[in-house]
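User: For my dataset I need records formatted as: sequence, then structure tokens, nothing else. Please produce one.
Assistant:
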Amino acid sequence: MNQNVQAFWDSMKNKKVALLGVGVSNRPLIEMFLRAGARVTACDMNKDNKNDGLSKELAAMGVTVKFGPDYIRGLEGMDVIFRTPGLMSTHPALLEYQKKGIPVTSEMEVFFDLCPAKIIAVTGSDGKTTTTTLISLFLRQAGKKVFLGGNIGTPLLPLAGEMSENDYAVVELSSFQLMSMRKSPQIAVVTNLTPNHLDKHTDMAEYINAKKNIFLHQNAFSRTVLNADNETTASFAPLVRGDLYFFSRRHAVEAGAYVEKGQLFMKEKNGTVTPICAQSDIRLPGEHNVENYLTAITAVWGLVSAEDIAAVAKEFGGVEHRMEFVRELEGVKYYNDSIATSPTRVINGTLSYYTQKIIVIAGGSDKDIPFDELGDALCRKVKTLILLGATTEKIRQSVILSEYYPLDDPDIICVNSMEEAVQKAKEAAAAGDIVSLCPACASFDMYKNFESRGQHYKDIVAAL
């Protein structure tokens, strides 16, 4: 094990450690801290966890369990508190603990401090997961040892001891993770920025400032990759300290990847232009995925070859819940795009791909994002719109108030469950139609996360 990583775990012996949130990110951490000899308290706001045997399982391991609405209170005796990514670093209780001298950190912050591998990190409003996955696939195709994780689902701190300076950690980072970060990766990537998570962030400025942390702490020997087609990300250029690269789907760039006449190119700082692959070689459908490729290519150029990239483009069929083909029934094709948790993801993703009008299932929890542009796109690209969840009325209003809305086109159907939504879609569809779940919203009003929503949808479609 790397000496710095070992020293960290040695320093945790007999320390009182509280982990806020017993989810994907923190469950493996609990076991690591226990092995290090720490005295662990597991805290979670979901009091229902008491009913699924989790509290008994943790208690049997020697963990103090604190579940329920007051899970974040009464931690004054802790030596360190680890917050889950979904808990804002600006939470008043956490700020109070810090005033009392109790360190509040996160798994990702500590990982960045200890990681011996080279870190490539990706953030943005849309396209993060696919771009992060592509970067990891390019590197693996080139024979590199890669650790993929972060907001994509896998905690990396427990794996830091297995890493060496020759390895690569490819990390997806959310605005919540970045808010408190004071260290940036060697290669930082911002896919795009549009309004998102405004239900938790104070305003759009706070959201944008959180994203900036991915590159603000870089040194002069780092690389930053920005979207030339996105006004917000392009405006970051004067703040970059290291090598700045752009990518663009619309025009050639001074340095970075771009597409021209159906061909992807990479232009280096010295002006050398290398053809990568034809746009038609990319198995992933949609213009937004061409953009994801351009982003990933710019991030890894110099570490992998054009041949490695082309090989992945011809083989990689996509990430689950991202325009995922589910099945064809009676001539109707069903797709799962549960990852589309924002209006821009729906507009630039699913709706941009199909030339015909499709049947869409949308709606979910409210992130205080405006739906005006979505309403216009739904009018132009959707024949039947099926709405469920907390944002049903907001999305319906965005459609009927759109200048593109002729009466009853699209047909709008409001339902109360995913089962009802799929059944209504089946009734509305005829041979040759496309049905897609693309919610434009988060899932938390009805589901634990977008994965569980997508899986439920797929299960229902499979049972038709």
